[in-house]
Amino acid sequence: MRLVTFEPTPHRPRIGAYGSGLRIIDLNLAYALYLRDVEKEANFYALADGRVPADMRALFEGGDKSLDAARAALKYVTEQGPETKGPSGEKIIYEPSDIKVKAPIAPKKFFHTAGNFREHHEEAVKSGFSHPVMPWIVFFQNVDAIIGHEEPIIYPEQLTQELDYELELAVVMKKAGKYFSTEDAANYIGGYVIFNDVTARDIQRNEMKSGVFSFCKAIDSFCPLGPWIVTADEIPDPHNLAMELRVNGKIRQQSHSKKMSVKIPEIISHYSAMGYSAGDVLSTGTVSGVAAFSDDPKSLYLKPGDIVECEIEKIGILRNPVMSWEQFYGKKAAQASEAK
Fold first, then answer.
1. Which residues contact 114 (CB under 8 A, 6 or more apart)?
2. Does any domain span residue 29?
């Protein structure tokens, strides 16, 4: 399944999955309909809220039971056709133009893995970067910085002049756990999603004088995530995916997930000592091609008006425009004023 968080009306997010014709099916209402029609359950709304809730993290907290229920609902409504309505006549199937796609999940914790692609370390050394970028670097992301597909990366010019990009494959955990083995890791993987680890390099260099960094990657909107979560059953080998990042249509990063130094089950098992909650997100490191480690970084750093596209095979394309801080907050202020 391709699981998506969407807004059919402003500020009322729902979760769905893509069915035939790229239509989005509301999974909560679809499961209520399935319970009524197929399982002959009388209390179908309440049961649907418990098994396939209208919140992505809550869905993953239900583990395989909830994911299997969501699959059954998706299959049933797809078979019924595009005119299908909810149990009380509710709209249940949406055209992409009818909704706004949001970040697919708001995790409790977002684990960053850095240095997992040897090629990224090698380009860092070549560019004279202050620290080696080796495997087993981990830190946490500010989950409030997460944005979704087509939402703007806000360029805070008052803070940085070196805004960079980092294409990454990320894992979504489907159940809580701690201290488990590499062999058991696959049982905790719920799906995969694209992540752009936006970084202010000038801030990062100053932070790393003390050997740590956080602010440079945790500023508002610096965590594009999406466009949807592809469940693990649709990607049997996450180490066999082509990866590409483009800015204004020009390729900046191009690599392959098979180049990971440490494989995903090892990463997940190693960090399980910190404990996972269902719905937590864990990134797996970026590939070569970031602006900072190029021959001419200044010409490649992001700027307002740029369009960044992150593409990973079998998942899709995460697209985000870059907007100046002044333009974004000036626009929001104007909208607030008009609403009064």
1. 133, 137, 138, 139, 285, 286
2. yes
User: What is the end-to-end Cα distance of the chain in Å, rounded?
Assistant: 41
Give the pLDDT of residue 212. 79
DSSP state letter for 216: H
The total of structural domains in the chain comes to 2
**Rounded to an integer, what is the distance from CA 191 to the centroid of its chain?**
10
Closest CA to 142 of 168, 174, 108, 190: 108
Q: Please check whether residue 232 lies inside any domain of the structure.
A: yes
Q: Phi and psi (nearest 5°) for 22?
A: 60, 20
Rounded distance between C-alpha atoms, residue 175 and residue 232, angstroms: 13
* pLDDT tens digits, 301-319: 999 999 999 999 999 999 9
Tally of CB atoms within 10 A around 2: 20
Domain membership flag for residue 188: yes
Of the candidates 101, 125, 160, which is a domain's last residue?
101
Q: Which of 83, 101, 119 is the last residue of a domain?
A: 101
β-strand partners of 112: 139
**Cβ pair 154, 325 in contact under 8 A:** yes
In whole angstroms, give the CA distance from residue 112 to residue 139: 5
**Residue 79's CB: how many other CB atoms inside 10 A?**
10
Q: What is the domain range of residue 236?
A: 105-331
The DSSP secondary-structure symbol of 207 reads H
> Does residue 120 register a pLDDT over 60?
no
- Residues facing residue 319 across a β-bridge: 309
Q: Residue type for 302, please?
A: L
3 state SS of 116: coil
CB 230 within 8 A of CB 248: no
User: By CB neighbour count within 10 A (0-12 exposed, 13-18 middle, 19+ buried), where does 55 fall?
Assistant: middle
pTM: 0.93
**pLDDT tens-digit map of 191-247:** 999 999 999 999 998 988 887 788 999 999 999 999 999 999 999 999 999 999 999
Q: What is the mean pLDDT of the chain?
A: 93
